[in-house]
Amino acid sequence: ASGGGGGGGGSGGGGGGGSRVTFLSVLGLSGPSVNPYTIPLANADLTTPPSAALALSETSVLVSVEATLLTIDETSIQDKLLQTGPFSRLARSGDLVSALSAADGTLFVYRMPDWDVVSSFATKSRVPPLQLAWVGADACALFWDKLLFIVGPQGNWIKYSYEGPVRLQSTADGMFVLSGSDVEYLQRVPEPLERVFAVGSTAPAAILFDAAEHFANELPKADELVRAIKSSLAGAVDDCCAAAAASTDLETQQSLLRAASFGRAFLDYYDADRLVSTAASIRVLNQLRVPAIGIHLTLGGLEALGAEDLLGALCARRHHYAALQVAKVLKVRPDAVLVDWAIAKVRSTVAAEAGGSGRTPTEVEVAGQILERLSSSPGVSFAEVAAAAARLKKPALAAALLDHEPRAADQVPLLLSLGRPGLALAKAVDAGDTDLIYLVVLHVMQKRPFAELVQLLAGQRPALDLLQ
Q1: pLDDT of residue 334 exceeding 50
Q2: Are 111 and 67 members of one domain?
Q3: Global pTM?
Q4: CA distances (Å), 349 to each of 309, 367, 381, 388, 401, in order?
């Protein structure tokens, strides 16, 4: 962004003193290799910074200009033709955008793409909050100094007091509140839990839960309650499963799963996989929430994150054992976890050597430890670990690991980089891959004396025949 000003996400805007405001999208900031580059967005002919800005995507931004909002992307600018601005704060959840009026503090909620007003709420504060965020898609949170104010869709509100500053972080179905000492998670009570446990609830799921409790206490009324909801029993079982997954209390989870299992016994047909997968998800969520790991996810958050990214997050925190357990429960291959553990093992060995803290294991010993762990997972990539070892100046370890790599296409190039052309040629010949044989020969021709090439080929008749 030129000059100064505000922006959100990957886009920003700025300006001042009569200079033109330019919005840029900065990409390439994630991934294994950071290589940032910028893409200019369309020229909105602004000479002063917008009063608020919000990134809608990697290459589009929503800005508050005078009384309206503009969306700016690489090629176009769209005026939303509003008359309620300017706005001091913007936040988004799905197709909903909350905008706080800078004039009188009214909180507007718009629905994209038509930008109809869904609701409005008068905060009666001309001082803008420090933060505006969504609690899932159910409520808006505004934070002033030490005061958190949450507004619901019907104008209902609740406030919380804090001793110091906090950071609000929205999620798909709730919001984290991060302070200097605690992490809290706020969300609307999930509807399945509400249907089961609301005072006086007559929902089928609530009746099924009562029936299961009666059955556990050997009371005859259980059968009568089940017959009363026979036509909607499948939905009640689904609700008990969903409520169990939404609960964070272990005893409540178990009671709800027992109720679901109890109701399923009265159905001629019910997909048992639903109950099994729910129980598996609950096991994973409970394991993530233990203090030693401290990752709070809801079922919706788990599904949105996906198994691959979850395992990556656990590995990044060095919780490899927990990642292996999660992979087992979710029935996904643990290869990526094992490889990350092995690379971390190599790095820790190098760090221990640099620190000079007592005896450190030799490269052969480290290779043995890694091979013992990784050999239990056929198909795991030893080459990836070997490449990391090579980068960390552990050539003997890299070579020992490469000897167990089943894919010659991954073995040969790395062996060449380790200065072992003879072994590389032997692996290429064993694989019967002519392209790899040519690769080794060309490498030796370019990097080594001709006499060494002759000596190398003399011991590999298939390679020599290929070149004649």
Answers
A1: yes
A2: yes
A3: 0.79
A4: 26, 11, 20, 12, 16
